[in-house]
Amino acid sequence: MPEDLQPEQPSRLSAQTCSLSCPYRLHFLRSWSFAWTVGLTGTQRLYDGRRTNARIRAAKAVAEADRLDYERVVRAAFRDVEDALVNINTERNRRTSLAASASDSERALARASQLYRGGLVGYLNVLVAQQAVYRAQDSLAQSDLAQIQSTIALFKTLGGGAPNCAEKCSNSDGTVE
Known about the structure:
This protein is mainly α and 177 residues long. It is built from four helices and no strands. The chain has helices spanning 15-21, 27-117, 123-160, 165-169.
């Protein structure tokens, strides 16, 4: 068989190899491979374009959901702070009224005691006045407690409810990490 008619061994052919070793015979591979590369790239871009648009829409939806969650959390935090401030103010006003009531009850007890010592009223009036004083003092103490609890709620709402790092970060032997 003549050498011209023998088929070439299929070896690694590339556009660069063809251009160096056989400039005329396999020149078409270089131009066709370029066309296929451009065609595949264009097809990939069109196909990825739909997928990319879907990913962009999904990312926008996730971002919008995150924004709405953040807005909900911020609104709840503002509402909690406002509620705590209103509770503190309400208890402060209530305490002022209860303090005035307790003062009035103590004056009534003093007057009833004075009248009892003068023999003008019975001891039952003194006991009723004492009962009124004790109720007023109890209400005043409960109002103080409610005001302190409202202040604690405000501090927790503002971020003061975090656990103590010294307790959380210390080792069993008492050393801090």
